[in-house]
Write a structure and sequence with these properties.
This protein is α/β, with parallel strands linked by helices and about 270 residues long. Helix content is about 40%, strand content about 20%. Strand 1, helix 1 and strand 2 form a beta-alpha-beta unit. Helix 1 packs parallel to helix 2 and helix 9 packs antiparallel against helix 10.
């Protein structure tokens, strides 16, 4: 198995069918990738709906559907990593979708010490207009292979990437965090790859923006401060345990991003 596509889901709506449909339409050979869908923190009627969709719409595709009562996107991703058979892994949110050549282009540009990245566009839920994501301008100005230092701005999230399993190893997402866990995970594994390679611009990850997502949930000042403090502590613990393995610039910008993110939540 070449690629494992990991999709965590919680009480999904119709957007999950669009996500899975975009995976079913991949140009990459179907026998060379698997899809791992983890329904976490809920069961019916979503479990039966997902099983029915897989049976009717994903014939010929290797699908591993898992349901767990323990909620949390980090838990779902960790479960997926434990059972994944692919040489490479890509993470897709259940409300997003990808272009038909997404896996093919990412795979053709990846290697054991190189993470491949694709283009990204975003759209507001309920709209059909695609817009440039904040990374798109930088993406258009970039091509070929780059050292991680140049491309670290792309590593605040796990999506739009293909990652070799040796880079991840036995490292997992920190289940204690409900915000910023993606960036923390990417920082954790950043000591294990050297390069980043960009696919052609027509390989696209489509990012859906939903106002009812956990990202936009109103949080108390205490919750924001506690999460930010703990996040900065974790970044610091990872970096200072192995300061010569991690990039200080990346560490410093991650700390600043955590502070900036907390401030943004205060002013929402």
């Amino acid at each position: 198995m070449k690629v494992s596509v990991i999709i965590p889901s919680y009480k999904p709506k119709e957007y999950l069918w669009k996500c899975l449909g975009s995976i079913a339409n991949q140009t990459f050979p179907k026998e060379k990738f698997e899809v791992i869908v983890v329904l976490n923190g809920c069961c019916e009627p979503w479990k039966s709906q997902i099983e029915a969709f897989i049976k009717s719409r994903m014939n010929g595709i290797n699908v591993n559907f898992i349901q767990t009562e323990e909620g949390g996107v980090s838990n779902a991703r960790n479960i997926s990593l434990d059972v994944a058979k692919g040489e490479y892994v890509t993470f897709i949110d259940d409300d997003d979708c990808v272009s038909p050549n997404y896996i093919e282009e990412l795979y053709s540009n990846a290697s054991p010490d190189t993470i491949s990245l694709c283009n990204a566009l975003f759209f507001n839920d309920g709209e059909c207009t695609f817009k440039e994501y904040y990374v798109t301008k930088n993406y258009k100005e970039t091509h070929s292979v780059y050292g991680f230092q140049v491309a670290r701005k792309y590593f605040s999230g796990t999506w739009m990437k293909l990652i070799h399993r040796d880079i991840i190893g036995n490292r997992r997402f920190d289940k204690r965090f409900v915000n910023g866990e993606d960036a923390l995970f990417m920082f954790l594994i950043s000591d294990r790859f050297k390069y980043v390679k960009f696919t052609p611009k027509d390989a696209i990850y489509y990012r859906r923006v939903r106002n009812d997502s956990a990202q936009f949930r109103k949080k108390s000042a205490k919750e924001i401060l506690l999460n930010t403090t703990n996040m900065i502590f974790e970044y610091s613990k990872i970096y200072f345990r192995h300061p010569f393995s991690y990039n200080f610039g990346f560490y410093f910008t991650r700390v600043l991003a955590a502070i900036h993110g907390a401030w943004g939540q205060f002013v929402l």
